[in-house]
Amino acid sequence: MKKNSDSKKDNVTPLFQMKAPLDMPDEQAMFYFLDQPDDSEDKRAFLNQCALSELQLAELDYANKIIGAGKRLDIHQPAPAIRVSVLEAASAAVSGIAEKPDTVTRSRFRTWRWAWAAVFAALLWGGHMGLQQSQIVDSFDETDFEYELLTVEDDIDLLQATLDLDSLSSFDGSA
Amino acid sequence: MKEETRTTLDLGALFLRYREEGDMTSFQAIMDELHTPIFNYLLRLLFNRDDAEDALQEVWMKVIRQRDNYNDQGKFSSWVYRIAHNHCLDHFRKRKRCMEDSENYGDEGVSVIERTETDQPSPLEVLLEQEQLGVLEKAVAELPEAIREVYVLRAVHDVPFKEIAEIQDAPLGTVLSRMHQAVNRLKKVIAFDAPPAQEIV
Questions:
Q1: Is residue A48 within 8 angstroms of chain B, CB to CB?
Q2: Phi-psi bin for A24: left (phi > 0), alpha (psi -120 to 50), beta?
Q3: Which is nearest to B201 in space by CA: A30, A72, A17?
Q4: By the CB < 8 Å criterion, does A105 face chain B?
Q5: Least Cα separation, residue B104 to chain A (angstroms)
Q6: How far is CA A24 from CA A49, A51, A69, A162, B200, in A?
Q7: Of the ranges A32-41, A85-94, A98-107, B1-10, which one carries the lowest mean pLDDT score?
Q8: Threshold 0.90, pTM exceeds
Q9: Distance between CA atoms of B33 and B30, rounded to whole angstroms?
Q10: A29, A83, A91 ranked by CB distance to B24: nearest
């Protein structure tokens, strides 16, 4: 009886040592999760799945170790002269652009063009204002002239009426 | 990882400032960030220090000459790595390197670099680590070019797989498959009894 229970115990596979679940991503896809942020749901789900499989956890652990080891490999320094020559070339490349004669001329012309445009606009505005003012003065003169004409006409009418009255009275008197 | 992303984003803006305004301090800042990583990437692909230095200079000249081709929507470091990748492909086509070169790698390319670590390991640990890293360096050198490139970019330079796919102009699945092959090949050579000091997860 005791032997039986012992053999049963030996047959029982602990949960941790179970085979990987069917929906477990393959080893190739496992590397993809290394790039995912720690708060990623997919990564968390993957790590939870790994916790169920000793084999998968070992694979993940080993992949981490191999990748982590890469960071401890030696770092070599290039010759300092390379940096100097590259910086010189980089400086020459951009200073060549800045010293292009057409760019400089174009920029000066642009400045002058705006200045001339401003002067021209001011002259135009002044001329326009002057013309408008003279038109107003002219219209005033016309009104005055018409007013005078009407006054003269009125005077003539009045004079004419006076003359008519006079001639009528003389006619009545002679009669 | 996060720092790498931040600097990469800044590098694009710095390069635009250099390109548009001719600001040399921006270009110097770019070189501070990328000069050494690009050199180490080239060294691990070309195996020879002289070739790597020539290639480094040529890569920077291409960056300067092709500055108008840079699209500010893409990551600047990926763009530079892509130029370096293309340069290596040209180099491989011209020289037709064979595995003999990788055997010389240990002699001419590797030198001991001073490390600045906060906790000082014991001399035995240092010796073991140096030995282990020496084995790893040689094993990496023996990987096929495309697989080695993926390992070097991801493990040494912390470039995400998505960007490696852009650099190699390959689908993401292919890049992941190459990484899988790299780890499987390195697994046969290196046995990590003790866990390494730095771990990603």
A1: no
A2: beta
A3: A30
A4: no
A5: 17
A6: 7, 11, 26, 127, 21
A7: A98-107
A8: no
A9: 5
A10: A91
Beta carbons of A90 and B64 less than 8 Å apart: yes
Amino acid at B187: K
- Nearest chain B Cα distance for residue A92, angstroms: 10
Residue A118 token pair: 């401003």
All residues at 6 or more sequence positions from B130 whose CB lies less than 8 Å from its CB, including other chains? B112
- Residue A96 CB neighbours (<10 A): 10
Record: contact A76-B129, CB cut-off 8 A: no
Higher pLDDT, A159 or B6: A159
How many separate helices (H) and strands (E) can be counted in chain A?
Answer: 6, 0
Query: Between chains, do B156 and A76 touch, taking CB under 8 Å as contact?
Result: no
The mean of the pLDDT values for chain A is 74
pLDDT (tens digit, 9 = 90+) per residue, A82-133? 999 999 999 999 886 544 444 444 455 556 777 888 888 999 998 888 888 7
Give the model's confidence band at A171: pLDDT under 50 very low, under 70 low, under 90 confident, else very high.
Answer: low
Residue with tokens 């499989």: A53
Tokens of B77: 């470091």
Average pLDDT over residues B172-181: 92
Please list every residue in chain A whose beta carbon sits closer than 8 Å to the beta carbon of residue B53: 78-79, 82
Residue recorded with tokens 């400032």: B17
Q: Count of alpha carbons within 13 Å of B193, Cβ hemisphere only?
A: 4
